[in-house]
Amino acid sequence: MRRHWILLSALTGLLAGSGCAEAPFSVHAIDNDRKMLQATLGRIRPGPPGPYSGRPMAYILAGPERREDSEARARTLIGFDLARRQVAYAVPAEVTSRFAVGKGILVHRQGQDRLVIRDAATGQVRAQVPLDPAQVLLGICADEERVYYVTQGRGRGQKRSLVTALGFDGQRLWRVPAPGSVGAPAAHGGLVAVPYRYQDVVLLDGRTGAELTRIRQKDEQIGFVRATSEGILYGVGDRGVALLTERSVEGTKEKIAYQAPKLGDKVRVFLYWDGYRPEQVDFSAFDRNRLLWSPERKGEGLAFRGGVMVLHSYRFFFAVESESGRIRWAYAQPRHNIMASDETGGAVVFVTQDGEVGALDLASGAKVMSHKIPLQPGQQVLGATFDAAGFAPPLPEGTQTPAVLSVLHDIIFDRDSSFIAVKTFAVQAVSTLPGKEATAELLRVVTAEGMPQQVTRAAGEALVARKDREVSQMLVAALSERFDYLEDRRPRGLGILARAAAAMDAQEAVPALSEQLREPTTPPSALKEIVGALVALGNRSAVRPLRELVLMYRSDPAFLQDAEALKLAGEGLLKLGGEAERRTVSFVAEEPRTIAPVVAYYRKILDETAIRPGSKVKAAEQSP
Amino acid sequence: MNWRLLLVVASFWLARPAPARQIAPVKATAQEQQEIATLLSELRSKEGDAVEAAQKLAALEGPQALEAMLTELAIGVQPRVAAALLEGLVPRKDPRAIEVLALYSRNRNPELRHRAVQALGEIHDAQVVPLLVAALSDGSAEVRAAAAAALGARREKSAERPLLRLLQRQDPAAPAALGQIGGPETARTLAEMVGNIPDRLVVQTLGELLKRADFGPDPLRLEVVRTLGKIPGNEALDALTDYLKLSSKDRTRPSRVEASKIIEQRTAK
């Protein structure tokens, strides 16, 4: 009996090891099996060193902004040769998806009912494949020999997915069904990887569709797979990515080749298109708001190549160090949105809404290419897919790279107020730069007229955190700004400036802060911050303005709702003043006209600071 | 009521190093002292009664009442009570109130600022001028108007430029005050302002200037008349007509002759 068991186990292991133990996507398939994964990784053939198209290309879709625009309904596929800087072809094509590029071909959805395979060099149709109207397309990819696509049943309870392989002539080579959700595929070295049920990456043999192995992430969801020359990557959670290696069987972030950029809380980390969302198959705003990056093996781990990622947000690019969030360079495209972009390893290539095909040097952000493609009347660029791995136009001699702080300034102060998130990010980027000028820039943002509140707040927080005493003179000047009807001037960001003064221990700001305390136009929220700053600075010359504030407003019902400034001022009098100030606080606490919240608070602080019998009596200090 | 504490704070207030607060000790009668003490006690009752008490205290004559009012304002009272006390300071015109009024001219309550500036405006002391000029920059139109009126009434030349700025901001408080103060600079600036601010404001100011017997010499008046002549509308015509009436004793004055000519030309059309 025991001998039978041993034999059965050995047979099961053998079958599992050969990858043909179970049907693809079987619920009985073994996951995180190191030997199976090793065998699968060993099968991977190296990918092409450069673009699949043979030349660096941009496949650009142009068309009317709105599909219902009847006067210019036609869409055009434009093949643009990046190396020659010229349009290779322009053909009418009702494209409704991003392009997938294979060796010598490109694939896209046409309308809603078919896939079209085209010759990458001419744009001519090589094959058309109907799509099942009962299925929704989740993604397309291609490699040197085949096209792969994933579809899923429409409607509720239709979570049956299909993975299909086609030859470049459109002939179906195989199709495998999967119970549950399968995401957009990625092909690499003869394998097809698909995210499966949000937790697995299933690896299929590109030739047969047989499942070779699968890995399961135990602590996060898997949202996408991406093929690069470094290998297959998969999205882990909503902020990280992992490289498929033998360590992937461990299934937890700490133990796999995992990397998450540290870009600060102002950045929405969009590492790649979500494999499970059918709307992301087409060109969309996600193409204009994402991170551009290349992976790099680092020992057994994963790194972002050069330690840099490029954040693309509408008209703007920010090259950011992935480990520190520090800005390397920034670029602002004048007027028109950048509709699509990619990082090639040496450059950032992009296409703008009005048809500019451009490239920036990845290291410096300097513009190294700009070419305007002709568009038909009523057309604009709707999106583009690049096949340009390794494309890096040389930096023209004498190219001047604009100072990053200057570019960030232009972005923050751009008249278009709709880019609040971008401006906020630019402020965060400024805060990563060293030096007085960067701090001064933050100060300018805080005191700027008409700046969106979120942007001002971000600048203020950064300013406070920097504690940069080098700008104290500027800070004092900003704090000295007073409301003046005649000159149409008003101070801005007083609360933040006060906090910054306290953070940098700017004693020289005390007179200006004291004056703002007396100003009738100082907003209540700023009043609290100013009192707090004066108390924190601990300068005894603040006693008089604090006392004036307390006495003047202790009976004012306008402070009933928010008496924080008066409470803090009372605390400050006790902290900074002597016996006389204690008597003032006592008086205010006992006087019948003082508003209730102040009475209660002052009694409390008086009690807390009372000198108990037997305790050491401090000599009464002189009032200033 | 905690009189001990009140007196303690009042003593701190009086001990402050401020020259304006040097009130010569004047002995009040026992009856006056009793009355003030009663009113001070009532000031600590319900707000309505306190306002009434404040009005009564304000109505009392003599330095003891003034001292009591200033002390109350200095240690802080409800806004309505403060308003009554500040109103009571207006007719007193007492420089000893300047320091307290200066504080209230920057109170967060615009009504209190208005009353403080009104009271400051009545005090004939050079110390109030910078306070009044500062009040021209106030965010409240009422406060600015009170300051402008006071500066105009005292013909405060140092306020000419701020008042011109106020006129540029199209503040209706500016013309009357500027008309009382303005000199050659005002006349020239107003000529440049034509078309940039509403004609009504320029005409009002120029009209006020021409009403002044001390405004001149006549070449300056002539300049003003010509500026008015360039401004269309009946208001400019009315201002010139008023000038003709006011200058009827000096019919050969060139500026009058020019005004007459302009009126004839414009009415002939």
Please name the defining characteristics of this protein:
heterodimer; A: 624 residues; alpha+beta; Methylamine Dehydrogenase, Chain H; four-stranded antiparallel β-sheet; 14 helices; 30 strands; disordered N terminus; B: 269 residues; mainly alpha; Leucine-rich Repeat Variant; 2 domains
What features would you describe in this structure?
The complex is a heterodimer of chains A (624) and B (269). Helices cover 26% and strands 28% of the residues of chain A. Chain A is of the alpha+beta class and 624 residues long. A four-stranded antiparallel β-sheet of chain A has the order 3-2-1-30, with no helix packed on it. In chain A, strands 4-5-6-7 form a four-stranded antiparallel β-sheet, with no helix packed on it. In chain A, strands 8-9-10-11 form a four-stranded antiparallel β-sheet, with no helix packed on it. In chain A, a hairpin with a 3-residue loop joins strand 5 and strand 6. Chain A starts with a helix and ends in a 16-residue tail after the last helix. Chain B has 16 helices and no strands. Chain B starts with a helix and ends with a helix. In chain B, helix 2 packs antiparallel against helix 3. Chains A and B meet through helix 11 and helix 13 of A and helix 1 and helix 10 of B.
Blueprint of the fold:
The complex is a heterodimer of chains A (about 625) and B (about 270).
Chain A: H1 2-18, H2 34-43, E1 57-63, E2 76-81, E3 86-92, E4 100-102, E5 105-110, E6 114-119, E7 125-130, E8 135-142, E9 146-153, E10 160-167, E11 172-179, E12 186-188, E13 191-196, E14 200-205, E15 211-216, E16 222-228, E17 231-236, E18 240-243, E19 257-259, E20 289-292, E21 295-298, E22 301-304, E23 308-313, E24 316-321, E25 327-332, E26 338-343, E27 347-352, E28 356-361, E29 367-372, E30 380-387, H3 404-412, H4 420-432, H5 436-446, H6 453-466, H7 472-480, H8 494-503, H9 510-518, H10 524-537, H11 543-553, H12 564-576, H13 579-590, H14 596-608
Antiparallel strand pairs in A: 1-2, 1-30, 2-3, 4-5, 5-6, 6-7, 8-9, 9-10, 10-11, 12-13, 13-14, 14-15, 16-17, 17-18, 18-19, 20-23, 21-22, 23-24, 24-25, 26-27, 27-28, 28-29
Helix pairs in contact in A: 3-4, 4-5, 4-6, 5-6, 6-8, 7-8, 7-9, 8-10, 9-10, 9-11, 10-12, 11-12, 12-13, 12-14, 13-14
Chain B: H1 3-14, H2 30-42, H3 47-59, H4 63-75, H5 79-89, H6 98-104, H7 110-122, H8 128-135, H9 141-153, H10 160-168, H11 174-181, H12 184-193, H13 199-211, H14 218-230, H15 234-246, H16 254-268
Helix pairs in contact in B: 2-3, 2-4, 3-5, 4-5, 5-7, 6-7, 7-9, 8-9, 9-11, 10-11, 10-12, 11-13, 12-13, 12-14, 13-14, 13-15, 14-16, 15-16
